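User: I'm writing a tutorial on reading structure tokens. Could you give me a worked example: one chain, its sequence, then its tokens, then a sentence or two explaining what the tokens reveal?
Assistant: Sure. Here is the example chain.
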Amino acid sequence: MCQSNGVEAADQQPAGGANRIDAQVAFPQNQIGPHGMDKYGSDAKPQHQGKGKPAIKDVGKTCCFSHGAHRVSLLLFLLTQIVNARLLPSHSQWRAPIMIRLPSAWLLLAIVLPLSLQAQPRSLQEALADPAVQQGLEQIEQTAGLSAQQLVQIGGIISPSGQEHERAAAVAELMREIGLSDVTVLDAPNVTGRIPGRSGQALVFVSTLDDLATVAEHQRAADGPPVIDGDRVVGPGTNTSLTTIAMLSAARALLEQGVTPEHDLVFASVAQEETGLVGMKALYEAYRDQAEGFVDILGEGNSISYGALGIHWWRVHAEGPAGHTLNGGLPNINQGIGRAVDRILQIRDPQLYDDRRTRLNVAMLNSGAVFNHKPETGWFSLDIRSLDPEHINSMEAQVRQILSDVTNELGIEFRMEPFSMMPPGQIEGARDSDLVQTSLAISEYLGSTPNLSDAGSANLNVAIAGGTLAIGIASERGGQRGFADEWASIDVVQRTAKNIFLTAVTVGGAR
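And here are its predicted structure tokens:
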């Protein structure tokens, strides 16, 4: 379903230039749900509009900013009350013990100030100046061999979509070994573990448990498990599992440094990404109310997605009377399929809304088994995509009308079966959010020149469609995915782990 880089090449945009922010950020007023609706119903107005500067608006959860902002707001309120009420001690009062005369506002200020400072997301520069952060990065580097061995173990477990239970159990055991709290295997089966924070909110890291069906076939046909070959782990099952091993490497480094994050750091491996994002949907329902953001791990961060391209896959079934050639060739489902496909491919929306990545494709047709019998059933695939749900809905409505028309003309019945529904979504201001801009800085620090994209197509789509900020950090993970000689790069494991680690200590406020 998704490429290792999380977006198609045509969907990527250069990260630099005028779209980068320096001092002031235009935080969004609202968050947009899957159908363009405001999740929070906010009617907040801009609080500041300077000449030639973006407005600072009520951001809600959008920029991983809310809890620090609330504490800073309280701090500013207390300072205002102190000044307005002239609560500062007079010159004559300084001779007596000051604490006796401190107003209650000052006592509150003494409590709130350290909490406010502690709550702020750390800048990358601040984090890199911390010896513990440097030690964590060094630990990731030193445990490359362990990560490679774990990739052999996890990647060697046959785990096609819908059959991830054995791999889920193995990942859960590794989570327990490194010391994550509350390790749980859920029905999907998803695996989660966490490092508890202070705020009651969570930053959720997501890796993928399942493989393509073709990968499972190659695993069954292989002579043995994957092998370590220089800077590669070679064998089917290794490419996607790289994301889980990198996540565990980062979590291990965080735990070894004894950090306490501001937000819970949740590490989740989710099932059935390839067949409908089933695991991610369950994970999102569990964390949507407390998530500051989701980080979909697809690679080291050469590409960063912050928006969601909607992708709807349908299997369109056709039914009609079967019969031998001698009994006549009509009505015939193949005529119905052919007429329907021809008209569907003439739908104009992809040309009219090309700038919104609007696409429509019919890639597979299936019917019949012998030369001399017309089939009773058949089907064709339908791939509909767009950044905007209204364009997806429009194309699907036109398809239904075409199928109805062909039924009336030829007597062939059609039925649309959803195969995979990946929701679209865009969150206003996401590109300029702390999460995206910090991720950009981290990727650049690690040596990438990342592209930013508003057209992600992976687990992050679920969160974005629900109105919660999410990013996908992506790259090539190795090569030959889906083939017998599939491989994963150990160097990419390391850089991906470092990206996750630095995201945790910055956006997650781990100290």
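What the tokens reveal: Residues 311-422 form a domain with the Alpha-Beta Plaits fold (CATH 3.30.70.360). The chain has a mean pLDDT of 83.
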